[in-house]
């Protein structure tokens, strides 16, 4: 079961469709990770966006219930979203940081960095690579376009 949900949806989307998009997102991330096409962390993402926004194809903003009260994080999200919109970068908002950390941490580390600290998965960027042509990326992009309509 792919336990990731998407926030701020406009329209009626079935659980089956959400599960398909969650699976697609997981495939995109697990394919891009070994290729070095993932940037993890709010500050790291902001630096990457500033240096080379043309190579970013997807921005994932993730929160859990406790993050809603984090004013600094919400300000960062607002700025990152504005930058992504200005540069035509697709944005997905998800609300399961633990699952995202598991995917990006390889599952075995429980979403932790090599030093034992938890990954900051509040913002994840996927950059251009061969993975861009995969059916999973296209499925995510189709979903984003449907939501924007």
TrEMBL record:
Any one Gene Ontology cellular component term annotated for this protein: nucleus
Gene3D superfamilies: 3.30.1330.30
GO terms under biological process: DNA damage response; regulation of cell cycle
SUPFAM superfamilies found in the cross-reference section: L30e-like (SSF55315)
Cell location: Nucleus
Boundaries of every Ribosomal protein eL8/eL30/eS12/Gadd45 domain copy: 24-105
First-listed, main subcellular location of the protein, grouped into a coarse class: nucleus
Keywords: Cell cycle, DNA damage, Growth arrest, Nucleus, Phosphoprotein
InterPro entries: GADD45, Ribosomal_eL30-like_sf, Ribosomal_eL8/eL30/eS12/Gad45
Family designation: Belongs to the GADD45 family.
Full protein name: Growth arrest and DNA damage-inducible protein GADD45 alpha
